[in-house]
Amino acid sequence: MTTGVENEPELPLGPEGGAIAESGGPAEGVGDAHELQEAARTELSQLKEAARFATPERAVQVLEALFFAAEKPLDIPALEETTQFSRELLQAALAELQKQYAPGARGMVLVDLGGRWQLRTEPQVGAYVRRMLQVKPMRLTRAALETLAIVAYRQPVTRPEMEDLRGVDCGAVTKALLERKLIRILGKKDEPGRPLLYGTSKEFLELFNLRDLTQLPTLREFQELSEESRKIVEDEAPAPPGVSGLGGLVQDPAVAERMAQATAESESALSELEDAIDEADASAKTTAAVLAPPPQPPAAAEAPAGAAASPAPAKGE
To answer: Cys-Cys with 186: which of 42, 197, 219, 295 at CB 3.0–4.6 Å?
Structure first.
């Protein structure tokens, strides 16, 4: 029979024969790393053994927990590596989760982003989550949206081609879209100058809840929409996160009051600016009058000529 003391690992001895108990030494660091590796191997073997007896219900529970904890979309290879489940079991669990988290069924939806899945807040309840977290939704300027639409529909596209379509310089907008990872560099075009080719990224699909680019409406479909059809689409389509209709903003008393206050402040600031401009003009005129030399009268300028001519005697004298 062994005791707990006999099973404890022996500590290294110091010069006096005593055990070295100080933390942070090289021996302890190596031991910690070895223990972590052993724990990881043990956990992996346990997961492999548990995957052999996993039921579809258990797989659904595991995937639900993974999607809830993940910060980024997960694909099948990542799920296989994490759970050690078979691909068939994972696909069946994903199909069941898509039914449970269908749009409008719960407060969250399971979104398919082209072979990657992510749990997201239901758009209809997103306002409550934003209010609790005090976060601002991502906003894109009109120039950014125009450039992003050109890249999405014309990719791969170069910057000169974007500028030719928009009629303005796209350097700053392209840089901002690259920083937000909504577009990416695909390569260089085989023409003089070797301009860069741009295309949309995975983050672009995630932002607009698209499985792939085929879900984008075609230009012909958009052009063929009548005014009545466009109104129906706008009414039935869910509002994007953080965006509300102008009608709702106008009907909101708080928003109307803030708009009136902002208008009054703008008019007051404009009036102060005009007064400051008038004062600056008056001050400039005063300064110019002080610094400029006074003009001499014409009579004074002609006086020396007359004085020089007067001493001349007349011919008859």
So the answer is: 197
Backbone angles phi, psi at 279, to 5 degrees: -65, -40
pLDDT over 60 (residue 56) = yes
Query: Which residues are bridge partners to 158 per DSSP?
Result: 197
Distances (CA, A) of 260 to 249, 250, 252, 263: 13, 11, 12, 5
DSSP string for residues in 27-46: HHHHHHHHHHHHHHHHHHHH
SS percent in the chain: helix, strand, coil, step 5: 60, 10, 30
In the chain, the amino acid numbered 54 is A
Distance CA 14, CA 8 (A): 18
Residue 37 or residue 146, greater confidence: 146
C-alpha distances (whole Å) from 79 to each of 74, 114, 219, 300 are 7, 15, 37, 102
The type of residue at 108 is: M
Q: Which of 121, 157, 144, 100 is nearest to 242 (CA)?
A: 121
Structure token digits, residue 212: 């792939």
**H or E segment and range at residue 151:** helix 142-154
CA dihedral 280, 281, 284, 285 (to 10 degrees): -150
Q: Averaged over 187-200, what is the pLDDT?
A: 90
